[in-house]
Amino acid sequence: MRCPAGHRFEGWFSSSDAFAQQAAAGAIACAVCGDTHIERAPMAPQVLRHAGRGSQEPEPAAPQGEGTGAAPAASGGDLAGAQGKAAMVMSALMQQMRALRAKVEATCDYVGDDFPEEARRIHYGEVEERGIYGEATPEEAEALKDEGVEVSRIPWLPRDN
Ligand SMILES: [Zn+2]
Which position has the higher pLDDT, 37 or 49? Predict the structure, then answer.
C-alpha cells in the first residue's frame, strides 16, 4: 500500500475488489500518517528480504544491475507464485528423500550403532557384501572414508512429514 506522501506499508486483501471497496470507504489508512487516500503499491517479490524484520520498511532498493538482465519482474502476482513454486520444489524434494529412505530400508540391513564396525567388515571381506545402514558419528564416517570405505550420508526424513 502507498499513501500520497509516499509511505509504504503492507496490507493483505482477499482480492483487488476487496481492496478497492475498503479503500473507497476510507477503511484503509496509512500506517505512518493516517491518510486514507491509499493506492495499491506494486509489490516486489520480497519474501526473503522481509523475513524476521518489521513491516515498515523503507522503499526497497532497486536491484543492483550487474549486466545479468535477470531482475525479477515486480508485479502483484509474483509473490504468491514464487511461494507456490518454492513449496512445490520443496515437496518434490521431500518426496525424493522419502523414496530414497524407502529404498534403503527395503534393500539394506539396519545395523544401528554397529555401522562403522560392520562397514569395515564388509569392506575387508570379513562378511558377505551387502548394503547396510545405521548411525555413525561424523568422526567415524570420516575415519571410514580415510580407509577407503564408501559411506554416504543421506537426508533421513520421517515417513510422514
Ligand atoms: Zn502516509
Answer: 37
